[in-house]
Write a structure and sequence with these properties.
Layout (H helix, E strand, L loop, with lengths): L1 H26 L5 H28 L5 H24 L11 H25 L3 H30 L3 H22 L1
């Protein structure tokens, strides 16, 4: 049983690192401490709900659908990052905000779609469902909050380039995660 918890800890850390990298990109745009707390809670909600849905669906449907969820999520992050960068670099146009509204929901959902695939797999392996989703949600909250605060520090120093940098970080993160899934 200890091996299961060790594996679960590594899984939570791995998925949390995805959140950390995306959160740095969002934090670069500038978020208050209170807003960072709320954004981290939203990411944790997605990172808890999607694996739970994956576990439920995985028990019912099986692992074949799980492989595609990560590709969709990582592709969405890449496209969101490219759009954010393009909007940020257009003169006189308002940028695409990742720290609120549609941009935030797309970022949180996109980075969490791989958790849906993880849930499919976990249903077949027999990980304890409640402990699994709590661990993934807690890891997501901590890593997202840390990434937002770190990104905010970077953004304060970059000022006018912060929004374009946020999009670039998000696009690179999506691309790297997509390639890692494809090649791994």
């Amino acid at each position: 049983m200890i091996a299961v918890y060790w594996q679960l800890s590594l899984l939570a850390l791995s998925l949390g690192l995805d959140n950390l990298s995306v959160a740095v990109g969002i934090g670069v745009q500038g978020v208050s401490g209170r807003r960072a707390f709320a954004i981290a809670a939203l990411f944790a909600l997605f990172q808890t709900a999607l694996p739970a849905a994956g576990i439920w669906l995985g028990s019912a449907i099986g692992p074949r659908l799980g492989d595609y969820a990560g590709y969709v999520g990582f592709s969405a992050l890449f496209v969101l990052g490219v759009l954010t960068t393009i909007f940020a670099l257009r003169p006189g146009k308002s940028g695409f905000q990742l720290s609120s509204g549609t941009g935030l929901i797309l970022a949180a959902g996109g980075v969490s779609l791989d958790s849906l695939a993880v849930g499919f797999s976990l249903a077949l392996v027999g990980f304890p469902p409640l402990i699994t989703v709590i661990a993934l949600g807690l890891s997501a909250w901590i890593m997202t909050w840390a990434g937002l605060l770190f990104g905010r520090q970077i953004g304060a120093r970059m000022e006018e380039w912060a929004e374009a940098a946020a999009g670039a970080v998000l696009a690179v993160t999506g691309l790297v995660l997509f390639l890692h899934k494809l090649l791994g």
